[in-house]
Amino acid sequence: MNLQIISILILLMLGIGITSQAQQDLGLEKQLLIKVSPLSFFEPETIIIQGGLEYFFSNKVSIQSEIGVNGGLFGMPAGRGKNEDFEIWRSKSELKFYSKKYYWAIDFFVVNKDFIRLDDHYTPFKREIHYDRARINFQVFGGGLKFGKQLFTSKNIVIDMYGGLGIRSRFRDVLVLELAEFQSREFFEIGNPFAERYRFTGWDAVPQLSLGMKVGILTGR
After folding, report:
1. Which of 26, 41, 65, 70 has an alpha carbon within 20 to 30 A of 86's alpha carbon?
2. DSSP type of residue 79
3. Are 125 and 106 in contact (CB under 8 A)?
4. What is the pTM of this model?
5. Closest CA to 18 of 185, 127, 151, 171
6. What is the separation of C-alpha 28 from the centre of its chain, rounded to a whole number of angstroms?
7. What's the Cα-to-Cα distance from 70 to each of 47, 59, 86, 127, 211, rounded to whole Å?
8. How far apart are CA 86 and CA 201, in angstroms?
9. Average pLDDT of adjacent 10-residue blocks, the chain of 221 residues
10. C-alpha distances in angstroms, 172 versus 1, 61, 113, 118, 193?
11. Domain extent listing, the chain
């Protein structure tokens, strides 16, 4: 996660550095942008390839849809740390409203993960169960408001910098495949606090913070 945060900060600083040279192009009516998300390569659990399209109904209104997948969906080895056989797909749709310099957007997203987790525990019915291997199915549904700016660094290349707040609703199911021989916490490394999301079952809701950058290619010019 630290690597992801550092990467975001570096790209944002680069984007700020070119702001004085780039100009907002308002002639985008009926234009199409192809978007890629370079930061998805730095996801902490697996490498994700993510891209999408943004279509401008007018100079002030557009719709953007994107999808991200990893190699695990196609039978490739995927996963980091205690996760293996990691499969993930995620999609997001946004309705964006532009002013002369900035935009704001309403976004909705879905995430689905299915993977094998090793040497961990979860707590159903207030009882902590330790396992050697378990299958995790994890789903997220959410939405929020986003604010950003799109800057043309050349005639056809756009940098999209954004941040936003929202809420995500999460569901997880844990199926133990191999129970641990010793059911005591002293035999296990509790470790990564981000793994807490996989240590209980059912639903919860948490705030959603988004911060990042996309690269766009303008077609039709």
Report:
1. 65
2. -
3. no
4. 0.82
5. 151
6. 27
7. 6, 34, 8, 34, 21
8. 19
9. 46 46 60 93 92 95 97 91 94 95 95 95 88 97 96 90 96 96 68 82 95 90 60
10. 21, 36, 9, 16, 16
11. 26-218
Q: Is 214 exposed, middle or buried (0-12, 13-18, 19+ CB in 10 A)?
A: buried
Q: Which residue in 162, 28, 24 sits closest to 101, CA to CA?
A: 24
pLDDT at 116: 97
Cα(174)–Cα(191) distance, rounded to whole angstroms? 19
User: What is the 3-state composition of the chain as percent helix, strand, coil, each rounded to the nearest 5?
Assistant: 15, 55, 30
Determine contact, residues 120/136, Cβ cutoff 8 Å: no
Q: Helix count (H) and strand count (E) of the chain?
A: 1, 8
Tokens standing for residue 174: 């844990």
Q: Which of 153, 212, 161 is nearest to 23 (CA)?
A: 153
Q: Distance (Å, rounded) from C-alpha 190 to C-alpha 198?
A: 12
Tokens standing for residue 3: 């690597």
CATH classification code of 26-218:
2.40.160
CA distance 22 to 206: 36
